[in-house]
């Protein structure tokens, strides 16, 4: 990537993405507000200097944070009603989940992150890419309320992880993270440029492995259940975590995070089956509560966010994610401005797997995606095929 920065990775620390300087009008107001109320700020930078630097594009989250400004940026609490918005029915585990899911309401206190630009696939012509599955969990905020019951679940994603973790484009367990970076290094060696990262959307149950789904169920139980029922739940969880401290004990959160994904799923299933009608959440409600609102109705294998892997950088031993401990170096770039499926950008794979409708791949084709880290190259031929899809919609009648 040539242009504003010789090293495209340098843009991350200079308030830019690629060749375009980031300029957010809201940030101007926030900086002006913060400068008025931050002790000692005027000693480091005058209001005039701050304004001129900001207008020149010389700011970023890292810069604001180093000045102690970010805590002054007000959070926005958003009310979400999945039933009103519409959601994939596979969030439900049984037919009787539907009435409760339809009236579910949640509140998310959003962190004040930089706005995410819309991008076109054409912008990445000449770049290799990798794609693999991603769950639908939300990032960029804290779940603070479910149906009027207060709780706190830190939402880390998911696809949005790449936009609020400077220097990282993805988090995964150590082995898959190492595999992704190894393939990215091979692609960079071949094409002389960092590869693009374009994860595709899993089925709604994909988020059950992450800690957030169970954290929502546990937090809700602690706040909503009576003492007797909480005791019954704690006894049940001790079958999986013998030294369980209890849902009302904050230390139990780390206990839940530290067990395996299979154990977490078993606990979630126990809470769903035995306690959803005793003051607890159903698994369907918990899945919806921690999901990215923009992905509630997404099709399986839908592409959404686009990032860049810094293939020459070392892996992060600590990602900061509560579930996925290893970070892949890189940056988020933007969100695709149209609906594309994984097989839309993998035409050779689509032919090999006899995919005729990229929105509804067959089970064998789906399995192939799930078990492989898939790569491709964005060239004129691929872009012309995508343009044909836009014009005809033959492979994907819902392509927008």
Short description:
The protein has helices at 25-37, 41-44, 47-55, 61-66, 82-85, 98-102, 174-191, 211-224, 227-237, 252-258, 261-275, 283-289, 347-352, 363-370, 380-392; strands at 16-17, 20-21, 76-80, 106-110, 118-119, 127-131, 133-134, 139-146, 149-156, 168-172, 196-197, 200-201, 302-309, 326-341, 374-378.
Task: Write a structural description.
- The chain is of the alpha+beta class.
- The chain folds into 2 domains: 65 residues, no CATH class; 234 residues, no CATH class.
- Helix content is 35%, strand content 19%.
- It is built from 15 helices and 15 strands.
- The strands form 4 sheets. Strands 5, 6, 10, 11, 13, 14 and 15 form a 7-stranded mixed sheet that branches. A 4-stranded antiparallel sheet has the order 3-4-8-9, covered by helices on one side. Strands 1-2 form a two-stranded antiparallel sheet.
- Helix 8 runs parallel beside helix 11 and helix 9 runs antiparallel to helix 11.
- The N terminus and C terminus are likely disordered.
């Amino acid at each position: 990537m040539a242009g504003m920065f010789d090293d495209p990775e340098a843009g991350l620390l200079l308030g830019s993405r690629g060749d375009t300087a980031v300029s957010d009008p809201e940030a101007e107001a926030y900086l002006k507000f913060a400068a008025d109320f931050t002790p000692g700020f005027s000693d480091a930078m005058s209001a005039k200097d701050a304004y001129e630097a900001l207008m020149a594009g010389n700011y970023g989250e890292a810069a604001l944070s180093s000045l102690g400004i970010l805590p002054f940026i007000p959070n926005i609490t958003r009310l979400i009603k999945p039933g009103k918005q519409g959601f994939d029915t596979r969030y439900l585990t049984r037919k009787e989940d539907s009435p409760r899911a339809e009236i579910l309401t949640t509140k998310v206190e959003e962190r004040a992150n930089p706005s995410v630009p819309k991008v076109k696939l054409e912008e990445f012509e000449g770049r290799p890419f990798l794609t693999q599955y991603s769950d639908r969990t939300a990032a960029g905020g804290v779940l603070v309320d479910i149906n009027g019951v207060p709780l706190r679940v830190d939402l880390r994603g998911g696809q949005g992880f790449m936009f609020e973790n400077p220097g990282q484009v993805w988090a995964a367990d150590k082995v898959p993270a190492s595999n992704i970076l190894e393939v990215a290094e091979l692609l960079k060696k071949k094409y002389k440029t960092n590869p693009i990262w374009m994860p595709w959307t899993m089925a709604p149950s994909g988020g059950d492995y992450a800690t957030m789904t169970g954290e929502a169920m546990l937090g809700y139980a602690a706040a909503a259940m009576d003492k007797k029922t909480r005791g019954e739940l704690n006894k049940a969880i001790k079958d999986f975590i013998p030294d369980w401290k209890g849902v009302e004990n904050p230390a139990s959160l780390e206990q839940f995070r530290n067990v395996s994904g299979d154990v977490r799923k078993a606990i979630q299933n126990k809470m769903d089956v035995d306690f959803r009608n005793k003051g607890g959440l159903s698994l369907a409600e918990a899945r919806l509560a921690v999901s990215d609102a923009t992905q509630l109705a997404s099709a399986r294998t839908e592409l959404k966010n686009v990032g860049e892997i810094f293939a020459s950088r070392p892996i992060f031993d600590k990602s900061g994610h509560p579930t996925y401990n290893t970070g892949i170096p890189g940056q988020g770039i933007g969100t695709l401005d149209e609906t594309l499926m994984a097989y839309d950008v993998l035409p050779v794979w689509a032919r090999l797997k006899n995919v005729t409708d990229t929105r509804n791949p067959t089970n064998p084709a789906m399995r192939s995606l799930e078990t492989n880290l898939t790569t491709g190259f964005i060239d004129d031929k691929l872009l012309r095929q995508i343009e044909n899809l836009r014009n005809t919609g033959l492979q994907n009648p819902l392509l927008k």
